[in-house]
Amino acid sequence: MRLSRYFLPVLKETPSEAQIASHRLMLRAGMIQQASAGIYSWLPLGYKVLRRIEQIVHEEQIRAGHIPMLMPTVQSAELWRESGRYDDYGEEMLRISDRHGRDMLYGPTNEELITDIFRSHVRSYRDLPLTLYHIQWKFRDEIRPRFGVMRGREFLMKDGYNFDLTKEDALHAYNRHLVSYLRSYERMGLQAIPMRADGGPIGGDYTHEFLVLADTGESEVFYDSAVTDLSFGDRAIDYDDVEQCQGILEEFTSRYARTDETHDETLFADIPEDRRRSARGIEVGQIFYFGTKYSEPLGATVQGPDGQSTPVHMGSHGIGVSRLLGAIIEANHDDKGIIWPEGVTPFQCGIVNLKQGDAQADAACEDLYAALTGRGLEPLYDDRDERAGAKFASMDLIGLPWRITVGPRGLKAGVVELTSRRTGVSEELSPEVAVARVAEIYA
Ligand code: P5A
User: Fold this and answer.
1) Residue nearest to atom 25 of ligand 1 (CA)
2) Statement to judge: residues 293 and 155 lie in one domain
3) Number of neighbours of residue 324 by Cβ within 10 angstroms
4) How many domains does the chain have?
């Protein structure tokens, strides 16, 4: 992409309504624009990162054997009356009436709708296990939408639902989700710690939230600092291997880590004092096992091997896709702007032309652009007729992890400069080596 042809409405001023860094930076970098309280338009740069995050979530869900689909945002109240949640859900549910006076709602979650799909088609235990998921907009009429996309009213969620014959099988589905979430967050450059939590309006008493530690987080958390030493890394996973998935759950959840809703002072006091931590965190996902809470009232049953009809065991599993942008920026920024982890960056590399209009510099930038594109990368070429300082400031603000700077002086010596946004370290390299280096980073 050439910046002169892109739509990147960068703000010079710091927006006064934004209280935390991620919200400020998303507005300043022209990623989002508020449409009304807690509802945002995703401008091209923000939309690109949103799509990258979605892509990682899809890849990891499919790897775990879960099946993508798409359900609508607007749902009928009927199903919610069947489960009893139409009244229970309270003021967070946006209730709508259609022209025939029928009660509808903008879905805050999809347990009822997916259970209806399941009960319409599945009759036998032979069709299990089954896990379906989608990535779809949700609406929750939050009393205090704030911090930009962090607590929105309209937000993008990945929500997955497992259907199993037995509790044991459903717990394996729970473990598969835990493992796939650990992988997903790490690919996004985040450490998200699973912590015992409360079921809330979704239900069940077996649930973990995934928390990214950050001072600006809305959740209060308590944990053994040893959990922060764990990392998933590059392990081979067989998602059908019950023991392997259970082992990973135990590895990541056996130490004390809880949100304030389930915090237990007595258990906390058993942790050696120098490892006891209380902090704040951003909840970027939550997994639930709730047994037959929805399958029973909605009549989602299958015929078991013994010929008996039994309600299926279920769980649901959510990732806050749009909230993740805020969480990633909270964890990756400095005074100058965002520092994208390579896994989610909107463009892999920036190209800054220090002397636009200089035939040699222009040609060298065009060559770099073509070479990077040829390697399957998407560079952002700042080809505007601007001062070098302004170009650097924009690049630092939007946070591309790598920048290649091209100027007439360097070109005389046959070099360009490759700079890391994170460390600020620059190296002078021939254009070919710079391209190879960037390609290798993303290989
Ligand atoms: C699990 C999937 C559920 O809704 N039903 C389907 C279950 N869980 S949850 O914890 O309530 O939500 C899942 C994740 O969505 C994000 N989230 C939000 N993001 C932005 N703004 C909001 N108002 C908001 N509410 C929830 C969180 O990341 C949460 O973990």
Assistant:
1) 151
2) yes
3) 30
4) 2
